[in-house]
Design goal:
Elements (H helix, E strand, L loop, with lengths): L1 H11 L22 E5 L4 H6 L5 H13 L8 E4 L12 H18 L3 E5 L1 H7 L14 E2 L8 E5 L2 H5 L6 H17 L10 E6 L4 E6 L5 H11 L1
Parallel strand pairs: 1-2, 1-3, 3-5
Antiparallel strand pairs: 4-5, 6-7
Length: 227
């Protein structure tokens, strides 16, 4: 914690780019932590409260987490850029400068998985990323960090609120189920299992879920499509 506090003081004093503001919104959550979420930049409400992912987007984010049995208090949440940009337009200059702070931050958090929310966050980690649709739901290795951490890009929760379509939330949930499977296995937390058989009238009979069968993520989407 002392290391994080020292890092935080350095970030608060940063004035390296034209986006710089006196108020910095830093990450929140346990350190170290197995799971870290990275968004783009804080909004006006986040700046006011000094916390990432609050307000409407934050409430939706919390709701989505609960659908896959994740709890906000158990994860680390941060943004690529630490200052609220005017008109919510984050600059590449700010991203490149803040990226150094972010890598230092994540090194302290030491996650097993980093979830990248939205195009901006994905582009900060994935070379040749051409938008979130080209990478979401696929596993990558973070080549810019020493330990080659597993990363998974997903839609930003704000995408659901701003015209993402009827299935946008379900797609986010499906992608986060992949993270849950990676961290916990098919079963519940603390009791991972490789596979389980289920009998689904909706999907036409017996299914093997997990190893050598359908994934929980695909099962979720199939159930949603067939409803």
């Amino acid at each position: 914690m002392e290391e994080w506090n020292q890092w935080a003081e350095k970030v608060k004093g940063c004035s390296k780019c034209g986006l710089c503001k006196p108020i910095k919104v830093l990450g929140i959550g346990p350190t170290p932590c197995d799971l870290a979420f990275v968004g783009e930049s804080p909004g006006e409400y986040e700046e006011k409260l000094g916390k990432p992912f609050v307000g409407k987007v934050g409430k939706l984010f919390t709701k989505i987490l609960l659908k896959v049995s994740f709890v906000r208090e158990d994860i680390y949440i941060t943004n690529v850029v630490k200052c609220h940009p005017p008109n919510n337009q984050t600059t590449m200059e700010a991203s490149q400068i803040c990226r150094g702070w972010l890598y230092e931050e994540l090194k302290m958090v030491n996650p097993k998985v980093i979830v990248l929310m939205g195009t901006f966050a994905a582009e900060a980690f994935i070379k040749d990323c051409s938008g979130i649709n080209s990478v979401r739901g696929n596993w990558y290795k973070c080549s810019d960090m020493e330990d080659y951490i597993n990363i998974l890009p997903i839609y930003h929760p704000g995408h659901v609120l701003h015209g993402g379509g009827d299935r946008a939330e379900d797609i986010i949930v499906s992608d986060l189920i992949k993270v849950r499977e990676f961290l916990w296995g098919v079963g519940v937390r603390g009791n991972p299992i490789k596979s389980v058989k289920i009998n689904s009238k909706l999907l036409g009979g017996e299914l093997l879920v997990g190893e050598n069968g359908i994934s929980l993520a695909d099962l979720w989407l199939n159930v949603k499509v067939n409803k």
